[in-house]
Design goal:
This protein has two domains: 4-258, no CATH class; 350-475. The strands form four sheets. Strands 6-7-8-9-5-4-1-10-11-12-14-13 form a twelve-stranded antiparallel beta sheet, sandwiched between helices. By secondary structure, the chain is α+β, with helices and mostly antiparallel strands. The chain contains 15 helices and 21 strands. The longest helix has 43 residues, at 329-371. The protein has helices at 4-18, 54-59, 61-68, 82-98, 102-105, 133-143, 186-197, 207-214, 228-235, 269-292, 294-297, 300-308, 329-371, 377-381, 398-401, and strands spanning 48-53, 76-77, 80-81, 106-114, 122-129, 151-155, 158-165, 168-177, 180-184, 222-226, 249-254, 260-265, 309-314, 317-322, 374-375, 409-415, 424-425, 428-434, 444-448, 453-456, 474-475.
């Protein structure tokens, strides 16, 4: 099933793959910039919007050059076009897993992201095109043999497909009509569906974000608007550091083979000047490297991109523009992004597996507090079978306790020395190894009774010792 965590990982990658060039697409509602009418049914509490015209991406000369290996000659090694082959393989795997052929079925999409300061962001994607929902359901069932990938329910007269993680709804998908799919975080998907059925446009209530989108070129095929609520989350204490000061808002819009423009509204004039100077400095370093590094010189797209950029600041506004002529830069950016695109599913699998390990550790801690010993996973999912007289709730979801392959990982449980009660233990370890290293997941993981979670960066099987993860395993922060 489509996963919200995967979407959050994929969002910036999709923007990179499209490059900094927009394209003409289906007309947007008058006065609303490039956003399609269906996206106005999104809830008002999102902080970032991304829009892409998929048809023009696949029809572009840049995409053709990447697939054929002519745009990025340095990416072809050993007689192979690694970028083109990676893109083709990724699209094929996506169709096998979801039943959606991006080149054939998708016209445009809008991705909304909120809750950037939350543990897991809120993500909803609206996809416009032509979709066979029964075929999508069959493809997802085939991709998860023996495991129901979803359940269904009815909301506002529409069938909603629901996938679960750790026994809780994780992602929902619904067809508003044969040409519109909505998927992402359950609550927001249902809010979007209800608004669409009732003819409401709640996104317009987000005045500041809507104003940013309305100010963009309506013909843009690639566009982005990041509002104040999203940037405020990026500035909160504990947020990951950024290479430049975080602005109050950011917009980007452009066209394939033509111009693009990125505007950042900074907190004050000094920040705008400093940011512009930092980008100019980085660009100057890049231009020097283009002259000195023979490998970079093999990528003409990079020089074209560097020469075509202009950076300026006026008041609190920092602007980055290109008047065109750097068309091959889209290929460069795409080539750099393809590895991330291919890792999107891998990253989602890893994140889900780490989450499962944390769930097991928490469940074992609760079980130990109740029974004075850690238990077999079967005992955690059905405690009454192991603890005489127990009438409380289960500690662990039965699916997770089954040790079945999940999210591309094989799971194992190792008990330590016997504990004070039957079927109890003093220690335990729970390990997960990718079914196919480098594809299902890059790293393998292990968690134990100390609460420690560690990883092997190469994906080799981690073998617990005496009910504990080995000391050679690299502890995760």
């Amino acid at each position: 099933m489509f996963e919200a965590r995967a979407l959050a990982a994929l969002a910036p990658t999709v923007v990179l793959v499209a490059g900094v060039y927009g394209l003409s697409g289906a007309p947007a509602p008058a006065g609303n910039g490039p956003i399609p009418a269906a996206a106005l049914s999104l809830p008002a509490d999102f902080g970032m919007l991304l829009g892409i015209d998929a048809r023009a991406v696949f029809a572009s000369l840049e995409y053709k050059g990447l697939v054929e290996g002519t745009l990025m000659p340095s990416a072809a090694t050993g007689g192979k076009n690694q970028v083109g082959e990676g893109m083709t393989k990724g699209l094929k795997e996506l169709e096998e897993k979801t039943g959606v052929n991006l080149q054939r079925d998708v016209d445009r999409l809008v991705m909304a992201v909120g809750g950037l300061d939350a543990k897991e962001p809120n993500v909803v994607v609206i996809v416009l095109g032509r979709f066979d929902v029964p075929h999508i359901a069959k493809a997802m069932e085939a991709a998860n043999p023996g495991q129901p990938p979803f359940s269904t329910k009815t909301v506002s007269g529409k069938t909603v497909f629901v996938s679960f993680r750790n026994g809780k709804p994780d992602t929902e998908l619904v067809a508003l009509d044969p040409g519109t799919l909505v998927f992402g975080t359950p609550v927001s998907v249902e809010q979007t569906l209800t608004a669409q059925v009732q003819g409401q446009r709640p996104l317009e209530a987000n005045v500041r974000l809507s104003a940013l989108v309305k100010g963009l070129d309506p013909a843009s095929g690639l566009w982005m608007a990041v509002g104040p609520s999203a940037t405020a989350a990026m500035r909160k204490p504990g947020a990951p550091p950024t290479p430049v000061p975080v602005p109050e808002s950011v917009t980007m819009a452009g066209r394939f083979g033509g111009s693009f423009e990125t505007i950042a509204q900074m907190v004050d004039e000094a920040a705008a000047r400093n940011t512009a100077d930092m980008i100019r400095g980085g660009l100057a370093v890049l231009r020097t490297q283009l002259v000195q590094d023979p490998e970079l010189a093999k990528i003409p797209a990079l020089k074209s991109w560097a020469d075509g950029l202009e950076i300026s600041s006026q008041g609190r506004q920092m602007k980055l523009t290109s008047a065109g002529g750097a068309g091959s830069a889209a290929g460069l950016v795409a080539a750099l992004a393809i590895p991330s695109l291919m890792r999107a599913r891998t990253s989602a699998n890893e994140a889900a597996t780490i989450g499962d390990i944390r769930t097991v550790i928490s469940a074992q801690a609760a079980y130990e507090a109740s029974t004075q010993g850690y238990g077999e996973l079967a005992c955690l999912s059905a405690p009454a079978t192991c603890v005489k007289g127990y009438t409380g709730p289960a500690f662990l979801d039965a699916e997770l306790a089954s040790l079945k392959d999940k999210n591309g990982y094989k799971r194992v449980f190792q008990a330590g020395k016997p504990g004070p009660r039957p079927r109890s233990f003093q220690t335990y370890a729970y390990a997960a190894t990718p079914l196919e290293a480098g594809k299902a997941g890059t790293r393998s993981f292990c968690g134990d009774s100390t609460g420690r979670i560690c990883a092997d960066p190469k994906g080799a099987a981690i073998v617990p010792v005496g009910g504990s993860c080995p000391a050679t395993c690299q502890t995760l922060p």
